[in-house]
Specification:
The structure is a homodimer. Chain A is an alpha/beta fold. Chain A is built from 12 helices and 16 strands. The longest helix of chain A has 19 residues, at about 170-190. The first copy, chain A, is globular. The mean pLDDT of chain A is about 100.
Amino acid sequence: TLQTPYYLLDKSVLLRNLEKISYLRQTSGVKCVLALKAFATWSVFDLMAEHMDGTTSSSLYEVKLGREKFGGETHAYSVAWADHEIDEAIAACDKIIFNSVSQFERYAQKAEAQNKKIGLRLNPGISHSHFLLADPARPFSRLGEWDMDRVTPVLDRISGVMFHFNCENDEYESLDTLLKAIEERYGEILHKLEWVSLGGGIRFTNENYPIDTLAKRLKDMSERYGIQLYLEPGEASVTKSTTLEVTVLDTVFNGKNVAIVDSSTEAHMLDLLTYSEYTSVAPNTGPHTYIVCGKTCLAGDIFGEFQFEHELKAGDRIAFLDAGGYTMVKKNWFNGVQMPSIAVRHLDGQVELVKEFTFEDYAQSLS
Amino acid sequence: TLQTPYYLLDKSVLLRNLEKISYLRQTSGVKCVLALKAFATWSVFDLMAEHMDGTTSSSLYEVKLGREKFGGETHAYSVAWADHEIDEAIAACDKIIFNSVSQFERYAQKAEAQNKKIGLRLNPGISHSHFLLADPARPFSRLGEWDMDRVTPVLDRISGVMFHFNCENDEYESLDTLLKAIEERYGEILHKLEWVSLGGGIRFTNENYPIDTLAKRLKDMSERYGIQLYLEPGEASVTKSTTLEVTVLDTVFNGKNVAIVDSSTEAHMLDLLTYSEYTSVAPNTGPHTYIVCGKTCLAGDIFGEFQFEHELKAGDRIAFLDAGGYTMVKKNWFNGVQMPSIAVRHLDGQVELVKEFTFEDYAQSLS
């Protein structure tokens, strides 16, 4: 058995998501590129690449990782490119998507010289997001061009646009309403484009999501404007595929029962801290209630309050569910807490340890 | 000139803090151990070790780093130790401080067998903290023993206790009030102990902090109970010593002027995101107002809204102040954004690049 903590990625669950992605691609004609910002554990990219068209990125390093480890179409997007990285980004990508007209003006000629397709991110000023922090249409958002007077003059030099306007959107009706507004506002220019990316944040791999309705909607939209549509699933690609496996190290009672485990929200599942959310466990039933906490110095390092069938004691194992998206990509060495290993359960059931972190890795993260 | 982003640690400012720490040690008799959870950039440990007594820790890896790179007294504290790491922690430390009586009961015998001093963390149920998230006395806190009925039976096997009850406390009166309450509640047991750590979070290196008053207060307390007092400065050791040096990559106007720089709050100054705070710049004057944002996909990746003398343009440099504590220890690869290098300005003014991070480091952070 492996030493906790470790992320355990179950390829059979991953495959279920990927098969839904394939189904959507086949029935709608949409292309799906993995958003590496959510998930970049490249040891399973071979399986993912069989069901997805490529990757999209938020930085030069993600562009390079996508090109080297995933293949297929490599979309290079970044909120802002730097002079010293733009050549490498253009060389490694198939399309480059600029966040602003000023970035376009600074670098488009270099992309044209390499015959790379060029896109521009537009901000439609509308969105579906549960958090202001993550809302791309928040006031004064820097994410994409809002002003069509600035966009129109460069339209003939771009082949497509990207809208990213959903965060954890699991409501088809909401997506449909937003799409209608986008079509109404941008319909005229969509006709002139080759491709449009609708970004990520659409939870179409969830159970009960009306995937056929989505497929038809996207197919109709593609045909209406004569465009190749893209989606950029990140979390949706890996949802429910990964657990964070931890061990109880101590239990204390301070008015409530508290169990302390060998992990940390801030270091290993950062979004729980950022968005003040709890993770989940299964079955989460039984008469024993515990606040399950991490082992960092942070007073609020809390994974959640859960039910257990038995009293917890040191040595007991807990699996935190749905730890695939936005976890491994932002893990860090806070408090010097052991960084979780990464393990993969292959389709034949065999578990393979694919990554371990050592004291030397911790020491070398500083200087 | 170095490629941004990079943390720039100015040893001459660091030395100013260290000299205050030395002054406090000399005038009060208190010992000061560096809290590695806040700052663990070991390339300046040689200078720090001249002015501090050693280190304290939150994990096995911090214990080892303190022992190997800093020397002096090595305090081993962790919210919870694991069976597989306890022997190594005990071997590497001078004192081991348990967070609960149950951890004490599980491991004390091992420490006794190695003749290591043993301490226990007590939670006095009072604190100075601006944030519930960081408040060690928050309801149901797992940080330290609350129940003296559990502590009393093991008192004869410990030589000291640790209280950590301050977070960013720059008010001497508040500290004094809390100390009085602690002395009142625990006075009887303090007499029986060899040492007491008052933890970290006291900002006594700030300008205008009444350091002589603090020194006298601590000296009196030591003498009253016949104990060696410890403080555990983390942030206080490095305050104002470090900037995060960044470059403007793009400017956009969406109702306000926004400048996008080659860094990220979440990835490089995480506490700004966690505590919804802005960093600072100097002089922060002039007629031009900009929201300064990072380059990640996160809509709320905002360093602050600042004043500038001139319009900002791509290529301009900005230095974010006070980026030493709780930054480098929690930096991460979110979005694959270039991790800042670490540079040190030596006392002779020479700037040395002590750490760079590469694409290979990014790729190897995953698997």
